[in-house]
Amino acid sequence: MIRPSEMRKIIEGLVTSSDLETVKFCLEIYPQKPVLCLTSALTHALNEGNEEMIKLLLEYKVDYTTLKNCRIPAIHSALTAKRLDILEKLFELGGTLDKYRVWNYLSLRQAMRYKDKTFLL
Fold it and tell me: What's the domain of life for this entry (predicted)?
């Protein structure tokens, strides 16, 4: 069985290369979807403006709330991209602001340490 962290890396690579069909296949066959953190994959699709990939990722109930190994929470990415449709879907999938406590207290100096600074705009 592939661990969630391994599947996350596989899917992130596929999202980066815009391989829609293989991402769909991976999500359909993977049994542990609720613990699969795809925040970074969704953020990449948002940054690239890949609408088909965004829609595909939001079809599956995976974890878009965990901060572990994710640079930017999905809710912040959706807000930055000014995508209320995506924000609404994230809340439908169980996303809450409770798990983003740490981001409420980040100072600008701390935030500047992150490589992807799109949330600062």
Answer: Eukaryota
The amino acid at 37 = C
**pLDDT (tens digit, 9 = 90+) per residue, 77-87?**
666 667 778 77
Query: Are the C-beta atoms of residues 101 and 75 closer than 8 Å to each other?
Result: no
Structurally, what CATH architecture does the domain formed by 4-120 represent? Alpha Horseshoe (1.25)
| Average of per-residue pLDDT across 103-119 | 51
Question: Of 76, 111, 119, 121, whose CA–CA distance to 97 is shortest?
Answer: 76
Least confident of 15-24, 27-36, 58-67: 58-67
| CB atoms near residue 46 (< 10 Å) | 22
Cβ neighbours of residue 10 under 8 Å, at least 6 residues apart? 2, 26
Distance CA 66, CA 63 (A): 6
